[in-house]
Amino acid sequence: MNDVSEISYAEAIKDAMAIALQADERVFLMGEDIGVYGGAFQVTGDLVHRFGEDRVIDMPISELAGAGVAVGAAVNGLRPILEFQFSDFAALAMEQIANQAAKMRYMLGGEVSVPVVMRFPSGSGTGAAAQHSQSLEAWFGHVPGLKVVQPSTPYDAKGLLLAALEDPDPVMIFEHKLLYKVKGEVPEGHYTVPIGKAAVVLEGRDLTIVASSIMVPRALDAAGELARQGVSAEVIDLRTIRPLDRETIVKSVCKTHRLLCVYEGVKTLGIGAEVSASVVESEAFDFLDAPIVRLGGAESPIPYNPELEKAAVPQKENIIDAALALASGVR
Amino acid sequence: MTGYFKQQASPENLDDRPFAIRHYSADRLKDALYRMHLIRRFEESAEDCYMRGLIHGTMHLSIGQEASAMGACMSLTPDDQITSTHRGHGHCIAKGADVARMFAEFFGRQTGYCKGRGGSMHIADVAGGNLGANGIVAGGIPIAVGAAMANKRLHPGRVVVSFFGDGANNEGAFHESLNMASVWKLPVIFVCENNGYGMSTSTARSTAVEHIATRAGGYNMPAGIVDGNNFSDVTEAMQPALRRARTGGGPSLLECKTYRWRGHSKSDRNLYRTKEEIQQWQRKDPIARFESSLLEYGIATQHQIQQTADRVEGDIERAIDYAKESPQPSVKDLLKYVYTEQQTP
């Protein structure tokens, strides 16, 4: 077993990239200010000094072409990891992501694969307001051909990135900016976390909380408080939103009979809708003892004012309140 | 600007025959003629199949633009690559594709280049170096730059030619890509087939510069403008661009002035240009001009040209038969190729 050390989510991602750069000549990083600057969130850090400017490439502020270049390079045998400075800037690159990367293999009848990895720092909570704070993963989750992951821990951040690099298809990684400094145990060396598998991160009896990204630690915090109040919550970390691990969700709801979906993206037509549908379309429907509850982002852009910003996405207290209401009558 | 791609005076240039006649063997020139005929007849036959309801969807014909497709591909090796456009049948054939598999694709058959998943707008021949036509204007340009980036590392000397139309020159992807390719000195050649119209909107109404080649100045790369209906001029203009790309000098932009005889697509009612304009360009038929040149310089006889045309007729007929007889894809395979099939451990 590899040695385990306590490192941050950002360090875990950097560790994964360093391992990949070391092990595979085809791997390279591309992004805005990822070289000597070290990346807007210091995720690439000093990698340019270790691997050189040919492997850690500062690109012009051209998200659309950057995404297309990554696609072309991937088709031709390289393994690009493209960092977006903020996930919001993906809007500039959606043509290449949704029309090209996602569809090229299909349109060409399986003659090519597009093994591109794109990393998107996302989410609110940094006071960066409406254009630097969104959670857009559901946009990408709606596109067949893409895989979409949302690590919530340093361990998963590293393991999912290394899995993405082994994946022959485009993998979109949504990293939460507030998680970058969060520490956790991470084994040294190479390991992968499977794409498409959710994790039951806390077992419980009374309700299932399905969460992703930063909502996982918030749900776990909430579950601690719920336990003190006599409610046993099971927490599922989706980890991947496309392909969605419906089996793990359904199994849990069959056990707990109650479902609370928590996600940061805008509530309407978001991850929670898909998770809910997965349950009501399954055998778990017959087990439901209460209506499903979704806690998602507000139907507004992310505001600048700190109190407004907090109110725009689910917080621990909202999760506790929703869970207590949902579990009322359990005992 | 046009002068950039003109050859410097050299002993070879004392020979005043057109570049292509001097540069390529008679066999290669005759093969180029065969391919240009094949493009023309492929498209006319595809159009005919469409009118008769044998092919559905839509298609964008490049009839009248054969010299730019063939001329740009003439000095490419099988390992060189292209990215193409929605008007991409000519590029595909010029790069060496088999018209039987192209027709099979148009007929939606499993034996088509894209196994019936792509159709006309996504026609490709990956093994032959064609990374695909593209339904998005300028969509293929950044991909070409990325492909060139990979080639620079993995296969030095290989070149990517990115075809696009005049319409693409106003897309952000075009500008971002030219800049990036130039900053990183990538082995890519941007070939603009300027046929005067982005769908119905003329370049005069859409584009702030008279010549799209002018755009290259903003990206510090050499550019040339050629008569895109003159096969030899296109091949000649490609030479310095190819040399520059193959030797690490970086990208170039070539603008081929040409014209499409047909409408934009099958829905075009031709309300934006005159019959006279079309007829004027038809008198500059790139195939007829190439044939005259071959005759004039004794490369081919009238009889051989006729034989070429006859051979094309037979090949097209057999290709359509192959397509018609090919199996349909199975509906149960609808989801195949969305993701790469992986062995489950």
What does this structure look like?
- Chain A has 331 residues and is of the alpha/beta class.
- Helix content of chain A is 35%, strand content 21%.
- Chain A has helices spanning 9-23, 47-51, 63-75, 94-101, 104-107, 137-141, 154-166, 215-228, 246-256, 271-280, 306-311, 316-327; strands spanning 4-8, 27-31, 56-58, 79-83, 117-122, 147-149, 171-176, 183-187, 199-202, 207-211, 233-237, 240-242, 259-266, 293-297.
- The radius of gyration of chain A is 20 Å and the shape is globular.
- The N and C termini of chain A lie far apart (44 Å).
- Chain B is an alpha/beta fold and 345 residues long.
- Chain B has one domain: Thiamin diphosphate (ThDP)-binding fold, Pyr/PP domains (Rossmann fold, 3-Layer(aba) Sandwich), CATH 3.40.50.
- Chain B is built from 12 helices and 7 strands.
- The longest helix of chain B is centred in the N-terminal third of the chain and has 26 residues, at 26-51.
- The radius of gyration of chain B is 20 Å and the shape is globular.
- Chain B starts with 18 loop residues before the first helix and ends in a 20-residue tail after the last helix.
- The interface between A and B is large, with 39 and 47 residues.
List the main descriptive attributes of the protein structure presented here.
heterodimer; A: Rossmann fold; Rossmann fold; 2 domains; 35% helix; globular; B: 345 residues; alpha/beta; 5-stranded parallel β-sheet; 12 helices
Percentage of residues in strands of chain A: 15-25%
Number of domains of chain B: 1
Major beta sheet, strand line-up of chain B = 1-2-3-7-6
The level-1 CATH class of the largest domain in chain A: Alpha Beta
Q: Mean pLDDT of chain B, as a whole number?
A: 95
**SSE topology string of chain A:** EHEHEHEHHEHEHEEEEHEEHEHEHH
Cα shape of chain A: globular
Quaternary state of this entry equals heterodimer
The named CATH superfamily of the largest domain in chain A: Thiamin diphosphate (ThDP)-binding fold, Pyr/PP domains
Assign the CATH superfamily of chain B: Thiamin diphosphate (ThDP)-binding fold, Pyr/PP domains
Individual helix count of chain A: 12
Predict the CATH topology of chain B.
Rossmann fold
Distance between the termini of chain A: 44 Å
Broad shape of chain B: globular
What's the helix-strand series of chain B? HHHEHHHEHEEEHEHEHHH
